[in-house]
Write a structure and sequence with these properties.
Blueprint (H helix, E strand, L loop, with lengths): L9 H16 L10 H8 L7 H12 L15 H7 L1
Helix pairs in contact: 2-3
Length: 85
């Protein structure tokens, strides 16, 4: 609405809180898949990827967290990036 009012349900709020708790509990829980150096070496063999795609691959491969979100508009290369990983 133009006055800034937003409506939702308690179930939606509970679901959102559950998701955020899971994300928080998943922080710093794992050994990364690779080192930044290993990822950089791999990415040298992937010239078709954009810098943003390379950054996402680096984050996904080197994080200790259980969850990583990748977001972007349709057609920006999210699926291409994930296929190369």
């Amino acid at each position: 609405y133009s006055d800034g009012t937003r409506w939702t349900t308690q179930a939606s709020l509970d679901t959102e809180k559950h998701i955020l708790r899971n994300i928080d509990q998943g922080k710093d829980q794992h050994t990364p898949f690779a080192t930044e150096r290993q990822v950089a070496r791999y990415l040298e063999t992937q010239p078709r990827l954009t810098q943003g795609q390379k950054d996402a691959i680096t984050l996904i491969s080197t994080t200790k967290d259980s969850f990583v979100a990748v977001q972007g508009l349709a057609g920006t290369g999210k699926s291409t990036m994930l296929e190369s990983n």
